[in-house]
Amino acid sequence: MEAGNFEDALTQLQWAQNNTKDAAITPLVTYRIARLMIESGDNAGARAELDKITDTAWAGRVAELRGDIAIREGDRDAAYTAYTEAQQAQDASQALQLKLDDLAK
To answer: What pLDDT was estimated at residue 3?
Structure first.
């Protein structure tokens, strides 16, 4: 991924997603797949991956990424809703307030 080869990174992550037996790793791998899909322009695929993450410990990160997708699609209202939801979660990122502030401008 760091080398910019998203396709190979996606293939490796999908392999890990399909072959891991560790339930703690699954949401991490799925989240990274969604991020790669967003970078590749596959917002619908990214949303579908995010739908697979049901672990509540990931709720904030998932909502924030949904907000990022909405921003890329120009839907500021949906982004605000997702970011606000993310802000309420235990795993809210520090950058989240900056994203909300940017929406207010």
So the answer is: 66
4 pLDDT higher than 80:
no
For residue 47, how many other CB atoms are within 10 A of its CB?
16
With tokens 């997702």, the residue in question is 82
> How many residues are present in the chain?
105
- Please identify which residue in the block is written with the tokens 């207010």: 104
Average pLDDT over residues 40-46: 95
The pLDDT value recorded for residue 56 is 92
- Whole-number Cα distances in Å, 48 to 28, 55, 64: 15, 15, 15
What is the rounded CA–CA span in Å between residue 21 and residue 40? 27
Pairwise CA distance, residues 34 & 25, whole Å: 14
**Predicted structure pTM score:** 0.88
Amino acid at 53: I
